[in-house]
């Protein structure tokens, strides 16, 4: 009997036979007491009675899938003789139960750059029905934004796996829907939330925003030589960057209030005559484990200032000449040098 059968439905049962005659063969029937079934008797044209099983209450296969009843036939003799037969009622399943998901929201945390095919989580569902009515399949539901390129779900096991590479810097959280459908077409839905955990997969990047080059050698200490932007796409400690300079250039690096901007300033006075060119390396290191670094080579040319006077080769020149030396005669040649360059180092005499 299908569990969808309405109360009041009748089901004929086999009649009994008695080899006696007369009142000894006149039969009546009894059924074991059961709240779901009663016995009705339909009289035939020949006066015999046909036992019928009457459904009194709606059936629910998920609560009780079968019933064991005993039908007894009694004759009218003295003494009364009887015969029994067992009646088994099997309740046929109706697809009256949708799949039930174990959670309404499934959450998972996975690291970025997982290989394709990695397990993220497993969705579980049960269906109280049997057969195809209780067989549940899973699928993505109403997804967009490239979700199908990044995640798949196994239709039978409910395992959600990666289909592409996850990138925390591109997106740190994915929320999408899943559908559980039984063989009869009943559907339940849930949400999946996947949080992507940052890995230290990005090295710090150094960008020069502005630079003053060459730098006058008479520039005061603290003069800004370059404005830099140091950035790491990672988050947390993986994105916290510290900077250092290597080389003997008279420069230092200062972090601005914004955090990511760095300023190169003069740490001491320049002297072009001592060094006309400075080369140094700026290194940025993040706080990941292991740490990743970025580097940039910076070259600074020192522009000459007229900070050096001409210097004679001798502090005093002495020459002895005869008194009759002709006018215009060369008495001596003096030389002076200037450490500056260009016009600043060009010497005239008077």
TrEMBL record:
UniProt membrane topology term: Single-pass type I membrane protein
Segments traversing the membrane: none
Keyword Disulfide bond assigned: no
Keywords: Calcium, Cell adhesion, Cell membrane, Glycoprotein, Membrane, Repeat, Signal, Transmembrane, Transmembrane helix
SMART domains, per the entry: CA
Keyword Cell membrane on entry: yes
Cell location: Cell membrane
GO biological process terms on file: homophilic cell adhesion via plasma membrane adhesion molecules
Cellular component GO terms held in the UniProt record: plasma membrane
GO molecular function: calcium ion binding
Stretches assigned to the Cadherin domain: 15-101, 102-206, 215-312, 313-350
SUPFAM superfamilies tied to this protein: Cadherin-like (SSF49313)
Protein known as: PCDGF protein
Protein species of origin: Formicarius rufipectus
């Amino acid at each position: 009997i299908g569990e969808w059968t309405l109360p009041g439905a009748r089901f004929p049962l086999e009649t009994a036979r008695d080899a006696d005659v007369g009142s000894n063969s006149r039969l009546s029937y009894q059924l074991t007491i059961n709240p779901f079934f009663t016995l009705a008797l339909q009289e035939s044209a020949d006066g015999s009675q046909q036992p019928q099983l009457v459904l009194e209450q709606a059936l629910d296969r998920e609560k009780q899938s079968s019933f064991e009843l005993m039908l007894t036939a009694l004759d009218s003799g003295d003494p009364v003789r009887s015969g029994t037969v067992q009646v088994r009622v099997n309740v046929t399943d109706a697809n009256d139960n949708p799949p039930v998901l174990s959670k309404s929201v499934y959450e998972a945390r996975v690291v970025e750059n997982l290989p394709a095919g990695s397990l993220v989580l497993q969705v579980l569902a049960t269906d109280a029905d049997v057969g195809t009515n209780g067989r549940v399949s899973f699928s993505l539901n109403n997804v967009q934004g490239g979700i199908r390129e990044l995640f798949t779900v196994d239709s039978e096991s409910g395992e959600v796996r990666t289909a592409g590479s996850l990138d925390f810097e591109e997106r740190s959280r994915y929320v999408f829907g899943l559908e559980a459908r039984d063989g009869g077409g009943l559907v339940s839905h849930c949400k999946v939330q996947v949080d992507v955990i940052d890995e230290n997969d990005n090295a710090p990047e150094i960008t020069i925003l502005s630079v003053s080059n060459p730098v006058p050698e008479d520039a005061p200490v603290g003069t800004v030589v370059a404005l830099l932007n140091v950035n790491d796409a990672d988050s947390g400690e993986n994105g916290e960057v510290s900077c250092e300079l290597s080389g003997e250039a008279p420069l230092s690096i200062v972090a601005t209030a914004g955090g990511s901007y760095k300023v190169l300033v003069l740490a001491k006075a320049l002297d072009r005559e001592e060094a006309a060119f400075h080369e140094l390396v700026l290194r940025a290191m993040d706080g990941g484990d292991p740490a990743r670094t970025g580097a940039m080579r910076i070259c600074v040319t020192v522009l000459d200032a007229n900070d050096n006077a001409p210097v004679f080769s001798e502090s005093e020149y002495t020459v002895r000449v005869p008194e009759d030396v002709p006018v215009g005669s060369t008495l001596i040649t003096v030389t002076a040098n200037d450490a500056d360059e260009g016009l600043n180092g060009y010497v005239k005499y008077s």
